[in-house]
Design brief:
heterodimer; A: about 1000 residues; alpha+beta; 33 helices; B: about 280 residues; three-stranded mixed sheet; disordered N terminus
Chain lengths: ~1000, ~280
C-alpha cells in the first residue's frame, strides 16, 4: 500500500505482524487491516455506491501514482497471486526512486508481470473477493495503487493513501502525504499501525453499543457493525448520526471516513431512522418495525412528532402492549414502566391513566401486532417522517422546510404554507446559504420558477440539500437515473445518495427468508414473540443470533474483516459489478489511453459517480437480479477459495465489456465529434483556491466545433457566444461575471449533488483533416474556480485532491511533461470523418505527444455579482411571484488556459457552407446538457462540429479533473473519429461570507 | 386517530341555535342584498333541525337565540370540533365574539375536550375551516388570520393544517365543502378554483372534486351515518337549479335538499348552522 522505501525486512515484519494477529475482526493490523476493512465494506453490497460517491482524496491517489509510473515507466507492476495471502511469506521490496516506484514481489512463481490492466483487474478482484487477497494488495503497494486507480471504489485508494500518510506521519492529511512523497520521492514512508478507536453508538433503545473501528474506517463500516449487532437486515431505512461541532445533528456519510466527518475526538453516534417508510406494514421483518417503533416513540416523546392527546394515549397503549403484553392489574410492572416512560412531552397523570385504560383493550395482541398498530397510527400523523429545517423565505420570514417522502413542505410556525412534491421539483441546489428549488411550470404557467430560501449558513443549506437529495433518491427513484440523461459529462458531486432506494430495499427485503429473528425488547426485557405467539428464546448477542437465524452472519463471524456479510443481499453482485467496472475501465484505458502513460483521473470513480450512465443502470439491474441467489452467493464469497471466484470474475468482466460496447453503440451520433478534455489547470486552481472554496458550481461545456459554433437561445447559447469559431481559450475569461453567476445558478439547480461548475469546451477541428498535425486537439482550458467557504471537511478534501496533481502544476505543464489530463486531452485527439482516414492514425500519434504551448493562468479579481432570486414561498397563496435580489455574491474566478500546439487549419480555413445546425438540450436533475451540432461543407469536406455544454452544480469536493477526464473518455467513445479542439473549464466559487 | 379518520362524516350530535329577530336587520352581511324574511328564515331553520333530528337521527342540542347576537344562528363559526377536541374560536367579527360562550358550554356538556384560543390577536371563524378527514385547510379571510390558523394547528396536532387565501367571499367554505371522503365540492368561480388548486398543491392526499356552477351551492353537508350511508344535505333546485343537477348525479347518496334562501342573504350557508360532533368515537 504505502510506498515503503524501507528495507525488505521491515516490510516482512509488518506483514508478519499482520498475519500474527489472530483476530481479523479487530483490524488492528496496520495497513493490511485497513485495506481489508475497506474492501470488506466494498464487498458489502454497497461497493457500487461507495465507488460512486467515494471521491475524497483517494481518487486522486491513483492518478498520481499512475503519473509517477508513467514518468518513470520503469516501475513494473506485478500481480500478486492469491496464494500470497499469507503475509508472512510475502516479501515486498518497495523502492521509491524519484518519481518512479518499483515494487518487487519476491513471491516465487506467483508474481507475474501482467500488464497494468490485467494487474489492476486481478488486484481489484482479489481484493474484493478475499480478505487474504487484501493482504497481498497491501504488500504490493504499487498494485494496490493501480487497483485504486482502476477500481472504482474510492476506499481502496483512500486506504492506500492513508497508509502512505500513516507511514510518513500518522495523521497527515492525504494531501500532504502525497505531496511530500511526490516532492521527495526518496523519502521513506513507513507504515504505521492503524489505530483503533472506540465508538459509542446510542441505539434506539437508548443502550449504548460500543465497538472498535479503525481510525480510518468509513461510516459504512461502523453502520454495518451496528446493524450486525442489531441483527437488522432491512437497514436501508436507518443511518448513523453524529453531532458536529456546531451542535448540529448530521448523518454520517457511509462513503466517507468517519474521522473526517466528525472532526473531533468524540466518537459518539446514534443509530436512527433515516427514511421513514410511508407504509411500515410493507416492511418485511418485525425487528425492523420494532426499531422503527423505538424511533417513533422517541420522536413522539420528544415532541419532534407532534400528536394530539388522543394519539398520545393510543400510541402509549400500544407501547405498553408491545412491551408488557396483556394488561394485568396484578403486575405492577407496567405501572412502573409507565412512570419511567415518557410518552409525550407534556405527559400527565390523566394521560397515563388513559394509556392504561386503552392498554386493557389490547388484550391478546402480540408485540408485533402492537407494533404494527402503533405504526399504523403513527404513520398518519402529519409530521411523520418530516425532517424540519429552519429557514427564511425571500422576505426574511422565519419558516421551516420539511423534507419527506413526498417532497418539500414549507411551514410557517405549524402551518403548512406551501408544498412542493418531488415531481414538481426540477432541480435542487444550494449556493452558500441559499437553497433553491426549481419548479416545474404548472398547467397555466409557461416558465419554470425558482424558489429560494435562506438558511442559517452554508452548512445548514448543504445539509438540507443533502437530505433532499437523499430523500428524493430514496423515495422517488426506482433505480439510478436513466442513462439517457447527461450521458456525456456526468459530474457527480461527491455527494449522492449511496444507499438503496426504497424500491430496491423492498425488493431486497422480499428475499429475506430467514426465520424471524428473535430480539429482546430492551426497555422491558421482554422477548419478542412471533405473531403466532410462540415464545422465542432471545439471544442477546446479535452475532450469535445471526449465526442461527441469518445465513450470512456466519461468514462474518469467521472473517471479522468483513463487516456486513450478512446484511448484503447483493454482495456478490456488487463485487461483480465492481469487477465489471474495473474491466470496463481497463478497456477504456486500452482503447483510449494508448499513448502517454499519464493516467487520466480514475475512470472507475467517475463511472461510479455517474448515476445516469448506462453502466450504472446496468449494475443496478444486475444487483437486483442477482440478489435472489444472494444467500448462496454471499456464502460463496465468504468461503469460496480464490479459484472459484476468479472464473466468476472473468465472466463478469466480460459482461462489463459488453456493457461498455453497448454504450458505445448506443451513441447514435455518427458524424458528431465528441471532445473530451481534462483540465489539469483546474486542479491547480483548486489547490490554490481550496482553502477558500466552499461551493463550487461546475459548469462543463464541451464544445465540439467543426467550423461554426451555432449559438441559440438556450443557456448553452450564452456559453456558445463565448466560444465562437475561434477556439480561443481566453473567451471564457471575457465572459461577464454576471452571466457566470446566472449560469452557476442554473447549474446548481441542475445538479443536486454539489456545486461545482465546470465549463468544458471541446471543439474538434475535423475540418482540416488533411493536416494531421493540425488535427491535434487544441485544448483551451479555462478553469475559474470560485469557492465559497465550504465546510472544513470539504476543504480538506479538496486540499488533498489538489495534492494529487502536483504534476499538473502549471510550471511543469508547459514542459513536455504532460500531466495525465493533458494526455487525456490528446487522446481526444483529432477526429476525422470518414473522408480522412489518415487523420485517425496521426491522431494517435498526436496524442502521444501532447504539448500544451500556451498556458495562461489568470486570476480575475473578485467580482461582485448579483444573483436574482425568485422566491415564491407563498406562491400558492400569492398571485404574483416576488422577485428579490439576493445580496451581492462575491465570486472568485480563476481561469487557466491550456492550448495545445495547433497547426489546425480550422482557424484559418474558409468559412465553408453551413449545411445543418441543430441544438439539443437535455436536462436532468443534476445536469443540463446542451449540444450544438453544426455541419458545414468546406472545400469538399464536410465538417461536423459539436459543441457540448454541460452545466453542473455541485460542491467543491467534486473532482473536476476526473470529471473532465471521464467526459473526454465518454466523448471519445461516442465519437472516436473526432478531435477535441477546445476545452474550457470554468469554475466559479463563491466566497463564503457567512461561514460560521 | 385512525378510527376517527376512517369514520369521516360520522356524527352523533349537532348543536344548533335559534334565529334571533335581530338577524333580519343587524346581522352582518357582505352583500347589500334584500331584506331577510325572518319568518321564512325561521322556517328554514326548523326544517334544518328537523332533518338532522328525525331524518338523520342526530341528537340535536338547540341553543336559544340571543337577541344581542344577531348572527348567533351560525354556530359553526364559534367552534371547530374534530374528534373529541373542540376549539372555541375567536370570531373575526367583534360583534360575534360572545357567541362562543353558549357554544362552549354546550360542548362542555358533551364532554368534549375544550381548547380555547388564548391569543387575542388571533381570529378564526369556523366557516374558514375545512376538515377533509385527512387534514385541515384554513382559509385566510377577512375573518380568519394566520395566528388563528396556527392555534388551530396546535389544537389538532395530528393533522396537517394548510392555509388557503380566500380572495373573495366571506369564508373558505363559502365556495367549498366536503361532499364525501376525499371529495371536495367546489364552486366554479375563479377564486374558488384557485383555492382548490392551492389545496391540491398543499396536500399529500389526492382529492376528487365535484364542481358546481354556483359557489353558494358548493356548501353542503356530508354525513356518513350508520344504516344510511352517504348523506348529502345540499341546496334546493329552486335556489341553485344547475348545481342541484350536479348533486343528483352522485350515486349511492341520500340527497336531502334544504332551502337556504333567506339565510344566504346574510351569508349563511348550510354548514354554518350547525356544529357536528361524533361523540361515540370519543369513548
Amino acid at each position: 500500500m504505502t510506498t515503503e522505501v524501507g528495507s525488505e525486512t521491515e516490510v516482512k515484519e509488518k506483514a508478519e505482524e499482520s498475519v500474527a494477529q489472530s483476530e481479523p475482526s479487530e483490524n488492528v493490523t496496520e495497513e493490511t487491516n485497513e485495506v481489508a476493512n475497506i474492501e470488506g465494506e466494498v464487498e458489502e453490497s454497497q461497493k457500487e455506491k461507495d465507488g460512486k460517491e467515494g471521491k475524497g482524496i483517494s481518487r486522486y491517489l491513483p492518478t498520481w501514482l499512475k503519473k509517477q509510473k508513467s514518468q518513470s515507466q520503469t516501475s513494473p507492476t506485478k500481480e500478486i497471486p492469491l496464494t500470497e495471502k499469507t503475509a508472512g511469506k510475502v516479501r515486498q521490496e518497495e523502492e521509491v526512486n524519484g518519481h518512479a516506484e518499483e515494487v518487487e514481489e519476491k513471491e516465487a512463481g506467483k508474481s507475474d508481470q501482467v500488464k497494468e490492466k490485467e494487474a489492476e483487474c486481478h488486484s481489484s478482484t482479489s481484493a474484493d473477493t478475499e480478505p487474504a487477497k487484501e493482504e497481498k494488495v497491501q504488500e504490493s503497494p504499487e498494485k494496490s495503487l493501480e487497483k485504486a486507480e482502476v477500481t472504482k471504489e474510492g476506499e481502496g485508494e483512500k486506504e492506500q493513501k492513508k497508509e502512505q500518510e500513516g507511514k510518513a506521519e500518522g495523521q497527515q492529511e492525504g494531501e500532504e502525504g502525497q505531496n511530500s512523497i511526490f516532492q521527495s520521492p526518496l523519502r521513506l514512508v513507513r507504515k504505521a499501525k492503524m489505530k483503533l478507536v472506540v465508538c459509542h453508538v446510542t441505539l434506539l433503545d437508548e443502550t449504548v453499543y460500543t465497538c472498535e473501528v479503525e481510525k480510518r474506517a468509513k461510516g459504512q463500516y461502523l453502520f454495518f457493525k451496528v446493524c450486525e449487532h442489531l441483527n437488522l437486515l432491512e437497514k436501508d431505512y436507518f443511518g448513523l448520526t453524529y453531532v458536529d461541532s456546531h451542535d448540529q445533528k448530521c448523518w454520517l456519510d457511509p462513503t466517507k471516513e468517519i474521522k473526517r466527518q466528525i472532526r473531533s475526538n468524540n466518537w459518539q453516534f446514534a443509530f436512527n431512522v433515516k427514511f421513514y417508510p410511508p407504509d411500515p406494514s410493507q416492511l418485511t421483518e418485525d425487528i425492523t418495525r420494532y426499531l422503527l417503533c423505538l424511533q417513533l416513540r422517541e420522536d413522539v416523546a420528544s415532541g419532534r412528532l407532534p400528536c394530539s392527546f388522543v394519539t398520545h394515549t393510543l400510541l402509549g397503549s400500544y407501547t405498553l402492549q408491545a412491551e408488557f403484553g396483556d394488561y394485568e392489574p396484578d403486575q405492577p410492572r407496567p405501572v412502573d414502566y409507565i412512570n419511567h416512560q415518557t410518552f409525550a412531552p407534556n405527559q400527565n397523570k390523566e394521560m397515563e391513566e388513559k394509556i392504561v385504560e386503552l392498554h386493557k383493550s389490547h388484550r391478546g395482541m402480540t408485540p408485533a401486532q402492537a407494533d404494527s398498530q402503533f405504526l399504523e397510527n403513527a404513520k398518519k400523523l402529519s409530521m411523520y417522517g418530516v425532517d424540519l429545517h429552519h429557514a427564511k423565505d425571500s422576505e426574511g420570514v422565519d419558516i421551516m422546510l420539511g423534507v419527506c417522502a413526498n417532497g418539500l413542505l414549507v411551514y410557517k410556525d405549524r402551518l403548512r404554507i406551501n408544498r412542493f412534491a418531488w415531481p414538481k421539483i426540477l432541480k435542487i441546489s444550494y449556493k452558500r446559504n441559499n437553497f433553491y428549488i426549481k419548479i416545474r411550470p404548472g398547467e397555466t404557467e409557461q416558465f419554470e420558477s425558482t424558489v429560494g430560501f435562506k438558511l442559517q449558513n452554508h452548512r445548514s443549506a448543504k445539509r438540507l440539500w443533502k437530505v433532499c437529495v437523499e430523500n428524493h433518491s430514496f423515495f422517488r427513484l426506482n433505480t439510478p437515473e436513466p442513462p439517457t440523461k447527461a450521458r456525456f459529462l456526468t459530474l457527480g458531486s461527491k455527494f449522492r445518495y449511496s444507499g438503496r432506494t426504497q424500491a430496491q430495499t423492498r425488493l431486497a427485503s422480499t428475499l429475506i427468508d430467514r426465520p424471524a429473528p428473535s430480539f429482546e425488547r430492551t426497555s422491558s426485557k421482554r422477548i419478542s414473540r412471533s405473531l403466532d405467539g410462540a415464545p422465542v428464546i432471545s439471544i442477546t448477542e446479535a452475532g450469535k443470533d445471526g449465526a442461527e437465524n441469518g445465513r450470512e452472519l456466519h461468514s462474518d463471524s469467521k472473517s471479522p474483516m468483513r463487516v456486513h456479510g450478512d446484511n448484503i443481499y447483493d454482495h456478490d453482485k456488487t463485487q461483480e459489478e465492481v469487477l465489471k467496472h474495473q474491466a470496463s475501465i481497463s478497456q477504456l484505458k486500452r482503447s483510449f489511453m494508448e499513448a502517454p502513460p499519464p493516467s487520466p483521473p480514475q475512470p472507475n470513480q467517475w463511472e461510479t459517480r455517474l448515476t445516469s450512465s448506462p453502466t450504472t443502470t446496468m449494475r443496478v439491474q444486475q444487483q437486483i437480479v442477482v440478489s435472489e441467489p444472494q444467500a448462496e452467493a454471499a456464502a460463496a464469497a465468504d468461503n469460496t477459495p480464490s479459484d472459484t471466484k476468479e472464473p466468476v470474475k472473468t465472466t463478469e468482466v466480460e459482461i462489463e465489456e459488453m456493457v461498455v460496447v453497448k454504450e458505445v453503440s448506443k451513441a447514435p451520433k455518427p458524424g458528431i465529434v465528441t471532445v473530451t478534455v481534462s483540465s489539469p489547470a483546474e486542479q491547480e486552481t483548486r489547490e490554490q483556491e481550496v482553502p477558500v472554496v466552499q461551493e463550487v458550481p461546475v459548469l462543463v461545456e464541451a464544445i465540439v466545433k467543426k467550423q461554426e459554433s451555432v449559438s441559440s437561445e438556450s443557456e448553452s447559447d450564452g456559453e456558445a457566444e463565448y466560444h465562437p469559431n475561434v477556439s480561443v481559450s481566453i473567451s471564457h475569461t471575457q465572459i461577464p461575471e454576471e452571466k457566470e453567476e446566472d449560469e452557476e445558478l442554473e447549474k446548481e439547480e441542475e445538479k443536486r449533488p454539489e456545486n461545482d461548475v465546470l465549463v468544458v469546451d471541446a471543439s474538434s477541428p475535423p475540418a482540416e483533416g488533411s493536416q494531421p498535425v493540425e488535427v491535434t486537439s487544441r485544448q483551451a482550458e479555462e478553469s475559474s474556480i470560485e469557492k465559497a467557504g465550504e465546510e472544513k471537511e470539504e476543504e480538506v478534501d479538496e486540499m488533498e485532491e489538489s495534492t494529487d496533481d502536483p504534476m499538473v502544476t502549471p510550471d511543469e505543464a508547459p514542459n513536455g511533461l504532460t500531466p495525465h489530463e493533458e494526455s487525456v486531452i490528446t487522446m481526444a485527439g483529432p477526429a476525422e470523418e470518414e473522408e480522412e482516414p489518415k487523420m485517425n492514425g496521426e491522431a494517435a500519434l498526436v496524442q502521444t505527444e501532447p504539448r500544451p504551448q500556451v498556458i495562461c493562468c489568470s486570476e480575475p479579481p473578485v467580482v461582485k455579482t448579483e444573483m436574482v432570486t425568485i422566491s415564491d414561498t407563498f406562491a400558492a397563496q400569492k398571485t404574483e411571484i416576488a422577485t428579490k435580489e439576493v445580496p451581492i455574491v462575491h465570486t472568485e474566478t480563476k481561469t487557466i488556459t491550456y492550448e495545445a500546439a495547433q497547426l489546425d487549419g480550422s482557424g484559418d480555413g474558409e468559412p465553408g457552407v453551413l449545411m445543418t445546425a441543430q441544438t439539443i438540450t437535455s436536462e436532468s436533475l443534476c445536469t443540463t446538457t446542451t449540444t450544438h451540432i453544426t455541419k458545414t461543407l468546406k472545400g469538399g469536406l464536410s465538417e461536423t462540429r459539436i459543441e457540448k455544454r454541460i452545466v453542473i452544480t455541485g460542491d467543491c469536493d467534486i473532482d473536476h479533473d476526473e470529471a473532465l477526464a471521464q467526459a473526454i473518455k465518454e466523448a471519445k467513445e461516442q465519437h472516436p473519429d473526432m478531435s477535441v479542439t477546445r476545452v474550457v473549464v470554468h469554475k466559479e466559487t463563491e466566497l463564503a461570507e457567512e461561514e460560521d | 386517530m385512525a378510527g376517527l379518520r376512517s369514520g369521516f362524516g360520522r356524527y352523533t350530535h349537532a348543536i344548533v341555535r335559534g334565529i334571533p329577530e335581530s338577524l333580519a336587520k343587524e346581522a352582518l352581511r357582505t352583500g347589500t342584498g334584500e331584506e331577510v324574511d325572518l319568518a321564512k328564515a325561521q322556517r328554514e331553520e326548523e326544517a334544518y333541525v328537523e332533518v338532522l333530528r328525525t331524518q338523520l337521527g342526530l341528537e340535536v342540542v338547540e341553543l336559544p337565540a340571543d337577541e344581542s347576537l344577531p348572527d348567533c344562528v351560525f354556530v359553526e363559526d364559534a367552534a371547530v370540533v374534530c374528534g373529541d377536541t373542540a376549539l372555541i374560536t375567536i370570531p373575526g367579527a367583534p360583534s360575534r365574539r360572545r357567541e362562543t360562550e353558549a357554544i362552549k358550554a354546550a360542548l362542555k356538556d358533551l364532554n368534549l375536550n375544550i381548547v380555547e384560543m388564548a391569543d387575542e390577536n388571533a381570529t378564526l371563524d369556523g366557516g374558514d375551516v375545512l376538515f377533509t378527514g385527512q387534514e385541515f385547510f384554513v382559509g385566510l379571510s377577512k375573518r380568519t388570520n394566520q395566528r388563528g390558523a396556527e392555534i388551530l394547528a396546535d389544537a389538532f396536532k395530528d393533522y396537517a393544517v394548510s392555509t388557503v387565501p380566500v380572495m373573495e367571499g366571506l369564508h373558505l367554505k363559502s365556495f367549498c365543502s366536503m361532499g364525501g371522503p376525499g371529495l371536495i365540492v367546489i364552486g366554479s368561480s375563479e377564486p374558488a378554483q384557485k383555492a382548490l388548486k392551492t389545496m391540491q398543491q398543499m396536500s399529500d392526499h389526492r382529492y376528487d372534486k365535484l364542481t358546481v356552477p354556483d359557489d353558494g351551492a358548493a356548501n353542503c353537508i356530508y354525513m356518513n351515518l350508520p344504516n344510511k350511508g352517504h348523506v348529502l344535505l345540499h341546496c334546493t333546485p329552486e335556489q341553485y337549479p344547475e348545481s342541484a343537477k350536479v348533486f343528483e348525479k352522485l350515486k349511492d347518496y341520500t340527497l336531502i335538499p334544504l332551502s337556504n334562501l333567506e339565510k344566504v342573504k346574510v351569508d349563511g350557508a348550510l354548514t354554518c348552522c350547525s356544529v357536528l360532533i361524533n361523540k361515540k368515537a370519543n369513548m
